[in-house]
What does this fold into?
Amino acid sequence: MRLRAKFNLAVIAAFLIGFAAAGALLQDLFLANAREQVLQNARIMMSAANAVRSYTDKLIAPVTPPQLNGRFLAVTVPSFAAQTTFKAVQKNFADYSYREPTLNPTNPADRPADWEADLINDFRNHPGETEIVGERDTPTGPSLSLARPIAVHDAQCLECHSEPARAPAAMVQTYGSANGFGWHLNDIVGAQVVSVPMAVAMADARSAFFAFMAVLGGMFVLVLVILNVLLHFTVIRPAVRLARIANAVSLGETNVEEYERRGSDEIAILAAAFNRMRRSLDSAMRLLER
It folds into this structure.
């Protein structure tokens, strides 16, 4: 096997090992960064929902009666306000959702799906848990879910949810007396759940990863070409010329030109040593001829 082939095989083998290791590491890194961006978007949505809840609780509910003309005003309920506000956003971003499902909801629209009920029960079984992040498959692709528990920390909540007799009559008339009651102080009754699609972020991460790996591969090809050109002019061509001269000298030819190479690299040192050896050999042959 020639020197160029050995050199290229060694360089290619080293590159393939490094390329595979970099691919495995960077793919996970790109996807992890994409997931972190999706999670950050979910936390921003959660903060926005909590801002609506806080605004409703502190500025709307105190100045608005819970019932007017025999009708219950759901807009005074922070949960209703936050979810209704987000529905306007959802018209433009259909795959994004914000819900506040409860195990025993007053409003049937807040009844949890099976996976949401699992989240709520997880919070109930682990009272110290403040956040759950998970992924699930949806018809439009993978979705990241961020959930936080809803606990009854304010005794005022029990005015509407402890027993039907204490609740506003308009609320009971609107939603009935079968659901949304029996809550107790510090109970975990539901969860805030934000769902954010991951398909676009993951597709962008994969595209960026493949583009990076393509650039890395292109850089390797360029480096390999440069190394081969350098190898040819600095090692292989001088070695071939030296071998040709040495072969001619070994066959007794005396009119073969010397190989002169300027510089102080190893090939130049080898050429100078070869020329000295050849002159010494010529001198020895002349002495023998006498």
